[in-house]
Structure formats: C-alpha cells, structure tokens
Specification:
This protein is mainly alpha-helical. It has a domain at 40-127: Up-down Bundle (Four Helix Bundle (Hemerythrin (Met), subunit A)). It contains 5 helices and no strands. Helix 1 packs antiparallel against helix 2 (36-63) and helix 2 packs antiparallel against helix 3. The longest helix has 28 residues, at 36-63. The protein is elongated.
Length: 128
C-alpha cells in the first residue's frame, strides 16, 4: 500500500533533497505495512532518517545564507518534536497513536512542506 508518492510536480530537481524525499516515502509505507513486531524498528528508522534529512537541509541553508532559515528550521524542529513524542510512546510499546499520526498527518504535512518550503529552498540553492 503506497500512501505517499513523489509525483513529478513534487520532484525538485535537487538530487540530495529528492533522494531524501523518496526515502521518506518508502519509510512511511514501510511503517504503515509493519506488524506489531517490526513497527518500533520501522518507526525508529523514520525518526533517524528524518533527523539526518533535516540536518542536511539545515546545513545547506546555513552554508548558503538562506534568509528563511528560521521559519524552515522551525518547521523541522516542530515535526521532529512530534516524532520524538511519538517515539517515546512507541518505545513504551504503544503504537496506535504513532501509526495514526504517520498515516493521517504526515502525508499532508509532507506535501505542503515540499511545495512551500523545500521548493523555495531549492530555488535559493539554484540561484546561488
């Protein structure tokens, strides 16, 4: 079951960012298909990837003097905070809320983040 896709209009033509987005999609799908035995490890994979993904973007913004870094990084911090709160529940053996969050909240957030924030970042990167 594929919940997220990376349609052509969401491909930003930045290899590293597009690759991170594709991996993110694959991890979301992996989580949603996970049974009780594998859910925690799949969720932890998503958290680790998301941290690394956001760190790479944050570094690009810092290196290139991106003017909207505060807003973009703030959004990264908010989402990581949400994921870390759900990780605490997952680590305690409670998966239902984390699974619902990934299924119901992450796809819409992901689409909006790419089209609004990441697209603007890639335009900035290409102009520098």
């Amino acid at each position: 079951m594929t919940v997220l896709e990376l349609p052509e209009k969401l491909v930003l033509n930045h290899d590293d960012i597009d690759s991170d987005h594709q991996i993110f999609i694959e991890l979301i799908d992996k989580i949603l298909g996970a049974d009780k035995k594998s859910f925690a490890s799949c969720f932890n994979e998503l958290v680790e990837h998301t941290q690394a993904h956001f760190n790479r973007e944050n570094e690009l913004m810092t290196q290139t003097g991106y003017k909207a870094i505060g807003e973009h990084k703030g959004e990264h911090d908010r989402v990581l905070g949400d994921l870390m709160r759900f990780k605490q529940r997952v680590d305690a053996g409670s998966f239902a809320f984390a699974r619902a969050f990934v299924k119901d909240q992450m796809p819409e957030w992901f689409h909006t983040h790419i089209t609004m924030m990441d697209a603007a970042l890639v335009l900035h990167l290409k102009s520098n």
